[in-house]
TrEMBL record:
Protein name: ATP synthase subunit alpha
Entry-linked HAMAP family: ATP_synth_alpha_bact
Catalytic activity annotation: ATP + H2O + 4 H(+)(in) = ADP + phosphate + 5 H(+)(out)
Annotated site, Required for activity, chain positions: 444
Top-level taxon: Bacteria
Encoding gene (name): atpA
EC number per UniProt: 7.1.2.2
Domain annotation ATPase F1/V1/A1 complex alpha/beta subunit nucleotide-binding: ranges: 231-446
Species name: Butyrivibrio hungatei
Phosphoprotein keyword on record: no
Domain ATP synthase alpha subunit C-terminal as annotated: residue spans: 453-578
GO cellular component terms attached to this protein's record: plasma membrane; proton-transporting ATP synthase complex
Record InterPro entries: ATP_synth_asu-like_sf, ATP_synth_asu_C, ATP_synth_asu_C_sf, ATP_synth_F1_a_nt-bd_dom, ATP_synth_F1_asu, ATPase_a/bsu_AS, ATPase_F1/V1/A1_a/bsu_N, ATPase_F1/V1/A1_a/bsu_N_sf
Location in or out of the cell: Cell membrane; Membrane
A molecular-function term among this protein's GO annotations: ATP binding
């Protein structure tokens, strides 16, 4: 070893004595195996007391700040290990731990920033960081190691990069990215790192969870067996969703994608489901409107909003869905049911593309990096229904994807379609025709949900999908013909009524028993003679009649969840009674056949 090794010693108040210096030198000489060391002494009051020695890319910490950090970490570890909440025990354990606590010399790896910009920093000098490790920069900004190369590491930044410049020190923390979680977050709006942004003060967390977490394995799961009702007739009847399922909502812009997710959240009132809405790259005003809707309908009482708006940096948009999922996992492992909405994953993929290009990863199809499939698969795979031994909790995911001109075969849509257990396809044409929600019955599918559908719903829904498909075909076929036979006319009338029934205004979810009553009535053709324009009005009055006059039917339906032949008969009798008592005007119209 010919060249003299340089080291820098920072001290707070008093410079180290000769004896201390020689001891420190001894440690360094042994570690780096060199004959001598050139030690530079610098005063730095920020370390509180003691001193810190940096040599090559290592840092030895004898400072007060470093010791406090070690003690804190040790105590954190301890409380995580025990899980025992009895204060007395913890205090005695703590005191014995503190007595035996042996202060090790803190040894941290440090590097320097060589390049920074657009929420990315390259760091030179850190050789051992792991993927996803949190790196702390001078000034407190945190980042996450995303790209580990031979000569440098690429880091995405979670804070303002204005204080970071070439030469800024960056320190390894040996920790993975995590967010605070807990019951206190319910009803709150947080950013992608778990910091409250609703101005309602601090949130007391119950613990921390890593943002990235492996998905539950096969043994830890069970199949979907409980319904997650959306309250939207066209979805619950034809594309039922189960707790633990992943159902994609896909469609062009402004086709009602967010509305379906929001209505589903609103419908979870009183159903013991915790809802998490993750906004990714949305306009801040859109997010504000969504929060307003949730508050107005009382859904905020059981919801959490994780918001990363379009003005946030790409790294925050990238991390937001994982943070939301970490929050959901906290509840799932307590045996609770969660619903998580990712609005939307197209923008998530775009944020990830921006990061990847800045990190100089090679672009692939549509300029997305090669691992963009993994980006969404590792996210959605975490939604599951846990086995009964593990508490039976679940995460149901409703990812949203925006398509361009209805093209479901482009890169990101096909990826997410193949990851999820089905999709609800929304179509602009239907939306503009006034068919809202604009669900395309032919292209939508739910692959697992029927196992979770209530018996009553399954029986009542019967052939509705086939009827609709036949109607559509017939409607196109008979578009220009005038003299139709009676059966075709009836089929068209039935289809028209069905289509009209599937239209549903916003924020008006239907309970399971209401949906069943409508389906039974329409299935038996009891609504076919109602003029299309009056169907919506009729439906509302019919449901009101059942609610006030036929409470026992509603109760039996929602309690048993089954539709016996007897009950079906009872419903039809009640519908007939209602039809009889309908006002004269309607009757006259019916009799004159004025469709
Ligand atoms: P974006 O692509 O901008 O995110 P989106 O697909 O999420 O749009 P929404 O914001 O949910 O669409 O809805 C678009 C508009 O359509 C809104 O103004 C909403 O009020 C209206 N809308 C959605 N669903 C319905 C419905 N069932 N009945 C009436 N209006 C609806
Ligand atoms: Mg939207």
């Amino acid at each position: 070893m010919s060249e003299l090794l340089k080291a820098k010693l920072r001290y707070a108040g008093i410079a180290p004595s000769e004896e201390q210096l020689s001891k420190i030198k001894g440690i360094l000489l042994e570690k780096f195996d060199v004959p001598d060391i050139d030690m530079e002494l610098v005063q730095d009051t920020s370390i509180g007391g003691g001193f810190i020695v940096s040599c090559k890319n290592f840092e030895y910490d004898w400072s007060d700040a470093g010791r406090a950090r070690q003690l804190r970490a040790e105590l954190n570890n301890l409380s995580r290990k025990t899980g025992d909440r009895e204060t007395g025990k913890i205090i005695s354990m703590l005191s014995s731990k503190v007595e035996n606590f042996d202060l090790a010399i803190g040894d941290r790896e440090v590097g320097t920033v060589t390049w920074v910009g657009d929420g990315i920093a390259n760091i030179d000098g850190i050789e051992h960081a792991f993927y996803g490790e949190i790196i702390e920069f001078e000034g407190g900004t945190k980042g996450m190691a995303q790209d580990i190369r031979e000569d440098h590491i690429g880091c995405i930044l979670f804070g303002n990069d204005t204080g970071i410049r070439q030469g800024t020190r960056a320190v390894r923390t040996y920790k993975e990215a995590g967010i605070p979680v807990g019951e206190a977050f319910i009803g709150r709006v947080i950013d992608a790192l778990g910091t409250p942004i609703d101005g309602l003060g601090d949130i007391k967390e119950s613990g921390y969870r890593p943002v990235e977490q492996p998905a539950p394995g096969i043994i830890e799961r069970q199949s979907v067996n409980e319904p997650m009702e959306t309250g939207i007739l066209s979805i619950d009847t034809m594309f039922p969703i189960g707790r633990g399922q992943r159902e994609l909502i896909i469609g062009d812009r402004q086709t009602g994608k967010t509305s379906i997710a929001l209505d589903t959240i609103i419908n979870q009132k009183g159903k013991n489901v915790i809802c998490i809405y993750v906004a990714i790259g949305q306009k801040a005003s859109t997010v504000a409107k969504i929060i307003q809707t949730l508050k107005k309908t009382g859904a905020m009482d059981y919801s959490i909003v994780v918001s990363s708006t379009a003005s946030d940096m790409a790294p925050l948009q990238y991390i937001a869905p994982y943070s939301g999922t970490a929050m959901a996992e906290y509840f799932m492992h307590q045996g609770k049911d969660c619903l998580i909405v990712y609005d939307d994953l197209s923008k998530h993929a775009v944020a990830y593309r921006a990061i990847s290009l800045l990190l100089e990863r090679s672009p692939g199809r549509e300029a997305y990096p090669g691992d963009v499939f993994y980006l969404h698969s590792r996210l959605l795979e975490r939604s599951s229904k846990l086995s009964s031994e593990l508490g039976g909790g679940s995460i149901t995911a409703l990812p949203i994807i925006e398509t361009q001109a209805g093209d479901v075969s482009s890169y990101i849509p096909t990826n997410v379609i193949s990851i999820t257990d089905g999709q609800i396809f929304l179509e602009s044409d239907l939306f503009f025709e006034g068919m809202r929600p604009a669900v395309n019955v032919g292209l939508s599918v739910s692959r697992v949900g029927s196992a979770a559908q209530t018996k009553a719903m399954k029986k009542a829904a019967g052939s509705i999908r086939v009827d609709l498909a036949q109607y559509r075909e017939m409607a196109v076929f008979t578009q220009f013909s005038s003299d139709l036979d009676e059966t075709t006319k009836n089929q068209l009338a039935h289809g028209n009524v069905l289509m009209e029934l599937l239209k549903q205004p916003l924020e008006h979810p239907l309970a399971m028993h209401e949906q069943v009553i409508i389906l039974v009535a329409v299935g038996a053709g009891r609504l076919d003679m109602i003029p299309v324009k009056k169907v919506r009005d009729y439906k509302e009055r019919l449901l009101a009649y059942f609610e006030t006059e036929q409470g026992d039917i509603c109760e039996e339906l929602s309690k048993s969840g089954d539709l016996s032949d007897q009950l079906k008969k009872k419903i039809l009798e009640a519908v007939d009674a209602f039809n009889d008592s309908e006002n004269k005007i309607l009757k006259e119209e019916l009799e004159s056949g004025n469709h």
